[in-house]
């Protein structure tokens, strides 16, 4: 437990120690302890540890710079968006009030639909995948995180995801996720433009309509 930066419990530390002992007993050294290969692995391990520490410092700086911004407080109010995700959204999307509407925001990260039709032929819709690929990947991970953490707090996006999956013709997972990305951006844009934090409420529990 003293040889790692992780905060391990005694139970978890014992479990890892038992695994290491087992692996040591069934393994056979392929290289001498003083060989070049061993020294090289040690060197890259030290480099990796240093990079991880530098990354943690940069993450703390990113959070600190973002916390004073009103938009940051709006972002973190939405379930599934943590402090780091909110700070990354600020970095990738910038001031989203510069967009005239949420559709322009969707186009900025490249999830607007690309449709093609010629005569009676109509190709299946695809997203453009233009714009900011880092922002697109970030919003994708945020939606996934919302679904994983659905038990922690009610969320309109998660409700919409399962609504798409339970239709008579269920949407494929990636299609449903992109639709949720679209809705997430629209929700965030509306919240920022009105200066309001996230609030979950059903307008009609019978019809299961959701108000954003």
TrEMBL record:
Record-linked InterPro entries: Transpos_IS110, Transposase_20
Lineage: Bacteria, Bacillati, Bacillota, Bacilli, Lactobacillales
One Gene Ontology term of the molecular function aspect: transposase activity
Protein's name according to its UniProt entry: Transposase
Organism: Paucilactobacillus vaccinostercus DSM 20634
One Pfam family hit: Transposase_20
Signal peptide boundaries: none
Family annotation (PANTHER family): TRANSPOSASE (PTHR33055:SF13), TRANSPOSASE FOR INSERTION SEQUENCE ELEMENT IS1111A (PTHR33055)
GO biological process: DNA transposition
Domain Transposase IS116/IS110/IS902 C-terminal: 77-151
